[in-house]
Every structure is written in C-alpha cells, then in structure tokens.
Amino acid sequence: MKNNWPLWEVFVRSKNGLEHRHFGSIHAADEEMALENARDVYTRRNEGVSIWVVESKHITASNPENNGELFEPAQDKVYRHPTFYTLPDEVKHM
Amino acid sequence: MKNENKIQYIYGIADNALILGQRLSELCGHGPNLETDIAMTNMALDLLGQTRSYYQYVAQLSGDGKTEDDIAFLRIERQYKNVLLVEQPNKHFGYVITRQFFYDVFHLLLLEELQNSNDETVAAIAKKGIKEVSYHQRFSSDWMKRLGDGTEESHQKVQEAVDDLWRYTDELFHMTDDDKIAVENGIGVNVATLREKYEQRIKEVFEEATLTIPETKWFQKGGKQGIHSEHMGYLLSDLQYMQRTYPNMKW
Description:
By secondary structure, chain A is an alpha+beta fold. Chain A has helices spanning about 30-40, 65-70; strands at about 5-15, 20-25, 50-55. The longest helix of chain A is centred in the middle third of the chain and has 12 residues, at about 30-40. Chain B is built from 10 helices and no strands. Chain B has helices at about 5-25, 35-60, 70-75, 85, 95-115, 120-150, 150-165, 175-185, 195-210, 230-245. By secondary structure, chain B is mostly helical. Chain B starts with a helix and ends in a 6-residue tail after the last helix. The interface between A and B is medium-sized, with 15 and 12 residues.
C-alpha cells in the first residue's frame, strides 16, 4: 500500500507534572488515527500519560542556514546566566 | 459446579482470545504500514496476555500437572472451543478490521458482565481485560467508519468483508451446555441476552460507516462444539509447530 498519509509530530508527557516532549513522528490520515497511531507506536512501554499530535505542516521551523544570526550572538553573553554572578556570603538559600 | 464444566466454560472464552490473537500476530511485519502493523500486534499481545491468565487458571483447576503451554499448544482441533468468526483468515485488511470489530463489540459486552462473576479469578481477569478491549473496539470502530465512508474501493472491500463475515456472528450468542451450567452457578454470562446491545452498537457504527448488515438467512456455527472451519487446521499447525517438533521446548 502506498502511504500518502500526512506526517504528524508526536508529543508525549511522561509523568504527571512533566512537560510534553517531542517523541517522534508518525503517518496518519486524520486526527483520531494520529492519536491512535501515536499511542500504539510510542506508549507501548508505559511511557506516557498524555499525547499531543500536530500535523507537521503546521510547525514553523527555523532555517538552519540562519543559525549564525539567530544563535551565535548569544554565545558571548555569559552574564545572562545566573552563575556569572558571585553571591555575597550573607545571601543564603539562593 | 464440577471443575470440568468450569474448564470447558473458560475455554469457550479464552480460546477466542488465543485464536484471534494468533490471526493478528500473523500480520506482524505484514501490516499495511508501520503504525497499523504495531497497532495490530499490540492487540495480539493484549489477547495473548488474557489467554495466559485464563489458561493458568485452567491449569490450576485441572491439577493434573498440565501447564498453560500444554493447553495452548497440545490440544487437538476438536478440543478448541473458539467461535468460527475468529479463525477466519486475513483475506485483506477489510476482513481483518471487520472480524476484529465483530468480535470486539461482543468481547466488551461479555467482559462487562463477566467482571461480576462470582468466581473471583474469572472476574479479575475480565475486569483487567475491559480497558484493553475498550481500546480494541475504539480502534476497529474507527477503522470501520474510515473504510466504509472512505473511497469507493475501501467501501466496496469492507462491505464485502461484512457480507462474508456476518454469517459467523450468530454463533456468538449460542449457549452451550457448559455455558448454561456456568450461568446457573453465577460464574458465567448468558450471552443470549447480549444480542440486542450488540446489534445496536453495530448499527450505530454502520450508520456512520455507510455500511449495511446483509440479509443473511443462514448462519454458520460449530466452533463452540469444537467443529471448526477448514482454516482451523492450518492455523493450528502454525501455532503448534514448535511444541510438536521440539516437545517441552521453552523460551
């Protein structure tokens, strides 16, 4: 069978309290099938308590070619990390 | 109630799960695509897990040293009490889904009653199976709608499967002597009373799926008495091959 079903991205929340993570992708013809396929492919080993699926075409992704302008400027801004600052001894429980 | 009657009653439920599970597992690696392949194998494993619980209980009841493997692999054809529906071959995907749907709807109604059995072990196995079988029914119902209300070709193929397989559904509601004894003792379910709900559920899905129940005049039966269709022997030779060729072989 030729599989011309659209691609879907699958997000699974592993445990209560943790966020959904990207688990992978599946093919499905409709939303219901996408959920069922995601359940069968990605939660067989007791991985999940919640599933989100979204058709891949609805995701807008950054272009790797733009990585320079998008991400490199942040590389030398070490002061944006809290560890950059030394705390005086008087400040406790931070 | 004699143990032998109880054992036969349990075979009448467990053998359906074993044989349907075997049919589904034949599709492992042969599903129409990766996702559906895994879904069907999952269902096969659910059914096999249920079968094991029933057979372990039978082994305990019979107390003759037989194990669940002996029960699954070393009986002869006449000793299997599954309905004819579940042994029907995987002719095409429409058949696989229709067979599954016809059995799932029955299976869920059965387990919902069986969880009230006064045999604690049987009740516990039934209760545990309900969640699994609810998902099976959801999966097969969705696919019936998708195929029935899909393309012209998918509609025609699934209707063909419905027309062929509907004649095996009547047997689901037949009461064997062991069924009657089990009901009298508060252990079993009177399956004849499930028919109305069964047909109601089928009709609901068929309406959305734009499928029709054929006007079948003659229904097939026999599996519950151990009289099977010609497909059963081939299925069993696959299922039993390893144990027959290498007796007492273990994983």
